[in-house]
Amino acid sequence: MATDSQHEYTKPRGKGIYLLPNLLTTGCLFSGFYAVVAAIDKHFEHAGIAVFVAMLFDTLDGRIARLTRTESAFGKEYDSLADMVAFGLAPAIVAYQWGVVRIAEFGQHWGRFGWLACFFYAVAAALRLARFNARAASADKRYFEGLPSPSAAAIVAAFVWFVSDWHEPGLTGLILAFVVTASAGALMVSRFGYPSFKQFDLDRRIRFVYMLLVPLLFVLIATDPPTIFLSVFGTYALSAPLLWVGRRVRRMVRGAPAPGP
Predict the structure, then answer these.
(1) In degrees rounded to 5, what are phi and psi of residue 197?
(2) CA–CA separation, 66 and 36 (whole Å)
(3) Which of 63, 91, 101, 214 could bridge 156 with an S-S bond, Cβ 3.0-4.6 Å?
């Protein structure tokens, strides 16, 4: 005859909501919300920092859930909704608040171009997250199809943070900001493959000299955060299109048909 303790041990756990990973997801959601509020208040440096804090929470929640075996269907859905706020709406609104008011001064059509670029980014982020969720079971874990939404958000936030000190960026600077925003959106819904780094083994041995790069990276970030973040994530975003162009050129030189993205 089974005891009460045995009945408790075999009791299904599927309906539970685990605190720690969902608390981290809430931190991601709050950071995205704060980025929007900071942008409305014209604190664009704080808004940019908030987006990167959201990225930190987004990285931790999934890893903690896997390490503690507390993954759940609820957590995945909650994480996706938080990502849409932090990496879809927040960067779009940050770019909108920073540039649309200024660019509208150059004409009504420029103002429309600005908010359409921001809306396109938000739609692209939603489509990117929906595609990721729909193909998560069958997708190659080593690569992302399209630029990940956190990386796209990092580019937009870092660019606005980088140019937030420009009191008068001029029409050229404003157009560049919205081109960057729209381009980040286009890369999210593209078919370019980006390394996911999910297979990186944190337990493997590495050379001591590589460890010296870690404090160097932190020093560089502390020296000029927006420039370093924009350089790192911009390089990552451009890597896939440039590699595709390189392969296409090599195949054209050899006379073979060019591959798709």
Answers:
(1) 60, 15
(2) 30
(3) 91
Give the count of beta carbons closer than 10 Å to the beta carbon of residue 47.
28
The pLDDT value recorded for residue 251 is 86
Is the pTM of the predicted complex or chain greater than 0.70?
Answer: yes
Task: Name, in order, each residue with C-beta under 8 angstroms of 196's C-beta and a sequence gap of 6 or more.
Answer: 141, 142, 143, 144, 148
User: How far apart (Å, rounded) are the C-alpha atoms in residues 223 and 45?
Assistant: 15
Looking up tokens 């920092």 gives 49
Burial class (CB in 10 A: 0-12, 13-18, 19+), 186: middle
Please check whether residue 6 lies inside any domain of the structure: no
> Is residue 2, in this structure, part of any structural domain at all?
no
The model's pLDDT over 115-128, given as tens digits with 9 standing for 90+, comes to 899 999 999 999 99
What is the rounded distance in angstroms from the CA atom of residue 90 to the CA atom of residue 244? 30
**pLDDT at residue 130, as a whole number:** 94
What is the pLDDT averaged over residues 138-148?
A: 84
Domain, as residue range, for 244: 18-199+209-254
Rounded alpha-carbon distances, angstroms, from residue 81 to 2, 28, 129, 185, 254: 42, 10, 9, 18, 46
State the first-to-last Cα distance of the chain, in angstroms, to the nearest integer. Answer: 62
Q: What is the distance between the alpha carbons of residues 166 and 80, in angstroms, rounded to a whole number?
A: 34
Look at 258 and 196; give whichever has higher pLDDT: 196
> Which residues are paired to 145 by β-bridges?
193
